[in-house]
Structures are given as structure tokens and as C-alpha cells.
Amino acid sequence: MPRGLQKISMVKLFFPGWVLMAILGSPVFAAEKPNVLIILADDLGFSDLGCYGGEIQTPNLDNLSKHGLRFTQFHNTARCWPTRAALLTGYYAQQVRRDTLPGIKRDMRPNWARLLPDMLRPLGYRSYHSGKWHLDGKQLEAGFDHSYDLADQSRFFSPQLHYEDDQKLPPVEPDTDYYATTAIADHAIKCLREHAKEHADKPFFH
């Protein structure tokens, strides 16, 4: 097995940005830079996974939890796009204008609100994105090395707006074998396999 794939067992599940930066800066990881995998699933209940006591068997996710980091007191926002902003910036979504409050409207992310890939690149990380984006700007400009962006979040079978590496892809016609969940997973797997083959000496963030 390639060294890069072996290192996948070190992934950290559900890793918020501020925790990530704190741990990477600690003496424990001074000589070792762990691979980081964030899985943000829409409409997933707090006890749906097997590792949290759920009735549905989720062995692969349970294994990630066993060898990674599992939170027991972590709460995200009720909507997905503020949660993504918080995870990738380390700030509250309202601080980076990705949520609305009385007197504060949703707007462009401030220039000082850098994303994790931009901060991880000087540390030797390669970064990948698969799925929804919900942030302003383009992924590669934000520090990602590869990206698949499903901009048509509600069109699971025939998206008209989706991008790979910041380039628009052709619309998907109805009645094809496209399914958003499969497309996102396939892209993530492709990125990790490519990383293991071509960049096994570098840590990854995905």
C-alpha cells in the first residue's frame, strides 16, 4: 500500500479550523504533520453514526472516528453555509459575514478572513475540496490545489452549475447516471489517490 494511503488512517474527523491550527502549532505535532479530513454532512443528526450510538451501521466512519478525533461537545449552526464558513476560517460565521444578524447583513468575506488551505500551504500541505462551496471567491485562489464545486446544490441528478478546478463543467442532462453524492465522493477519492501516488511525502487537507 502506498505510504500516502497508509497515512489516511491518521485523518481527523470533523476538525474545526481553530482546533486544527492550535494542534498543528503544538509541540506534539512539531515534527509530524497529520493528514486532515473534514466531512461535513447535511441533515446528519448528532446520534446518527454508529460511533455516536446510532442504530445504522457506519463502519467506515466509525473507523475514522476510532483513529481520529471525535467531538462530544461540538455544535454547528443549523444551516450548512455558515458552518462551512466557520470551519474554513476559524471565525464565527457572523464575523466573516456569512450569516445574518440584526444590523449585519450577509456580504463578502473580509480580506483578513483567510481560509485554512491558505494557512496550511506554507506548512507543506496540499488541499482539496469536494462538494458545496458556499463561500465567495474561487477555490484555487483560496489555496486549494483541486476542487469540485457543486453550485446547484438542489439539483442532485442534473446540475447546471458545477465546476472543477474553478472551470465550469458542461450541464448534466436529465436521465443520466449522474448523482451528486456519488460525484462528490468520486472526486474526493480521486484526489486522495492522486495525492498518495504523486505527493505521498506531503500531508493533505481535504
UniProtKB/TrEMBL annotation:
Keywords: Calcium, Hydrolase, Metal-binding. One of its GO terms (molecular function) is arylsulfatase activity. InterPro entries: Alkaline_phosphatase_core_sf, Sulfatase, Sulfatase_CS, Sulfatase_N. Pfam families: Sulfatase. Residues 34-205 form the Sulfatase N-terminal domain. Belongs to the sulfatase family. This is Sulfatase N-terminal domain-containing protein.
